[in-house]
Structure formats: C-alpha cells, structure tokens
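Exercise: predict the fold of this chain.
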Amino acid sequence: MRRAHGILGCCLALLLLPQLLPAARGSPHRLRRQPRPPGSRSGGLAATDAACKNRPLDLVFIVDSSRSVRPEEFEKVKIFLSKMIDTLDVGERTTRVAVMNYASTVKIEFPLRTYFDKASMKEAVSHIEPLSAGTMTGLAIQTAMDEVFTEEMGTRPATFYIPKVVIVVTDGRPQDQVQDVAEKARTAGIEIYAIGVDRADMQSLRIMASEPLDKHVFYVETYGVIEKLTSQFRDTFCAVNVCALGAHDCEQICVGNSGSYLCDCYEGYALNPDKRTCSAVDTCAPGRHDCDQICMRNNGSYVCDCYEGYTLNSDKKTCSPMDMCAPGRHDCAQVCLNNDGSYSCDCYEGYTLNADKKTCSAVDMCEPGRHDCEQVCVRDDLSYTCDCYQGYTLNPDKKTCSRAITSSLVTTEESCKCEAIAALQDSITSHLEALSTKLDEVSEKLEAYQGREQVV
C-alpha cells in the first residue's frame, strides 16, 4: 500500500508540472499553496519527498516576545521555528533563513547570510531570549526591510528571482502603525504571512498579510498547537522539484525554482549565454579579482601574489615594499640604498664603488680633480692635507700658498762681534785712506824731482 501511495504521488507531480511552470513564470515572487494529493499522508509525503522540495526562499521569521508571551509559551515558539527549519531545504543556494525577535525594540538574532545548515540554525534558535514589553510589529517589519533584506546581509539579487518571505508570529495588537509599513513591504516584493495566537487581533493580521488572505493569515488558540502549522507551511512552500525528476538540461547544477528550474555551475565555472552549459572562469581576468599586483589561478579560484621586492599583506590582497636593505636581503659591501622594491649599493666617503656594483675600494684622494690643494696634496688615510713648495707657506685656508718672507734673528753676542768687525773695518779703511794720501804726496814729489833733472 505504501509503495502504491508513492507511485501515485509521483504521477500526480508529473501531471501538475505543466500547470506549475507557466504560473511560476507569471509571478516569481508570489507563493501559492499546492493541494495535497487525495489520500496522501505521511507515506505519500515521504515517497514524493525527492520530487517535492520547498523552492528556494529568502525567509525571515519575525517573532513576538512581548510581556504577554509567557516564558513557556516562547519556548513553544522556538520549537515551532526549529520544526519549520526541519521542513525547509536549507542551504546557501536553496533556502536562507533569518530570525528576528521583537517587543518594544527589535533584535536581529541572525541574518540570512549567517547559517546555511539546519543544525547551526536550530542551535542559534535555542539560545534566543524574550525581550518583553511592547508590541512594535510595524517597527519589526520596517527593520526587516532596512537591515535584513539587503544583499550585504545575505539577500540574493533580484535577478535571481528568489522570493522574499516574512512569517510574523504574534499574540497581541500592534502598538504602532503597521498598515503603511506592511503595504510598503508588499510593494517591495516581500510576501507576508501572519500567524495569530490566542489574543491576537485578527484585523491587524489581515492588514499586514499578503493576498489572498485565506492563504496568508493563520490563527491558533494556544502556543501549544502552533507547531501543527508546520505541515501547512510545508505544503505552501512545496514545489515540484524538476531537478529531482531529471526533467532538465543543465550541464552541471540544476536549481529548482517555483516548479521550474535554473541552471548553475560549479565554483570556478560560469554559465554560458545558453543558460544551460558552463565554461571555466578565468578568475584572474580584469574585474574578477581584487589582487593588488599579481593574480594566480588556483583550482577554480585564485590567490594573490606580489612583484619582486614586495610582500603580501595580511589581507592576502594588497602588497607593501620589502625593506630590501634588511640584513640578509642584500649583498652590498658597505652601504645599501632602498629603491622602490629593489636596492642599490654605495660606499663610505673615501671609497668608490667597483665595477661589480657591490664592493668598494679606497679612493686616491690626491688624484687630479679629487682635491683642492694649490701646490702639494698629501694623502692622509681616507682624506688628504695640503702643503707648499720650499720657499712658500700654507695660508690659513689650508689650501693655498704664499711666498715665504725670510728674517734672521741676531743674538747679543753676534751683535757685539758685528760691532767689533765694523770698528776694525772702519780703522783699516781710515789707515788705508791715510796711506793712500801719503803715497799721492810721494808720487807728486817724485814727479817734481824728475822734472828738474830734465831741465838741467
């Protein structure tokens, strides 16, 4: 009998497929409750499970935890959330789930981007605590629009045609204006389901819910039976999984979409214009990576690297110049100079760089053109000093020379000797002059004598 129910369920799914596909194309954001096949219960449900998965959704639960919700009742709400998560096809590419908690304030317990597995979601739900006081339902819906249904928080782009769905659970009357906010949310393409418990105001539920109301408004008398709604929501979100039936022509990945399907590709591949086949992606093509300098393809993804002389920063994307003159990074003999990711060598004063551009040799500082001495250059270790030729003296500038002025210093003893010599010279001169005078007189007398003899 169980096998017969299973076969019947699959046949009905195949019969409904042509009717579901046009509807999905006509209203991608509207969720419709699919009728359960007559006579099918748990056995038929299990048999059609492979072909009946909930379509991908961006689903946000907004739960009331005001003072009117007693602690034990709030625990029932958390059980309901956990059972709802169990019925969903949770995953990054399928249904994403967020949970919001509200009273007079609103708390985002976790957004759509946080968890992609049921166990983690249910663990997070188990730790939710009630806020108490106030029932600001409008504020909660507005917060969902502003802070949860954004791509930054995990909502998928409109081009993916993933329905945005809100399920509000409350047991009271909103204490703020919910009508305008709910209308704005519906206009933005958000489908709203309203679940009222016990004292919930039915009019408020109808005001916030999407049309048709009989498919979007639910009421239960106590929190004790709220978990029974999970089966109804399962039917509501159920869509024939064309991918599971094999009725698709996707080359790599088939994603069910409201009774239809979309094709996708493995990581590192991109969907071709035919929307069916895939081609390997050049992950290092311009615009596909965020590497600062070098992009290297790596098994369908990429890693970043840097040019020589640069090092990869901790963000694994940008690069910073290396200190190429750090010990062990260069082979300069004396001085290393950083140079935009590279380096060059230099030498201390008094040395010159050799042809190998690494080692240094001492400079002959007295080579022509290397010094400014006027006359003589004298090497002095790695420097030099100036000197002058004999007969010249070095000027105060220690570079130029001037002719020397000679002077003798005469001692007292030498001065006395000089005076005695001078006196002797004067005496001899005087005697010579007297002798010369007498000789002149004798000569004159001799000439006179000779003259008289000639006359005689």
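Check your answer against the key: The CA atoms of residues 263 and 275 lie 6 Å apart.
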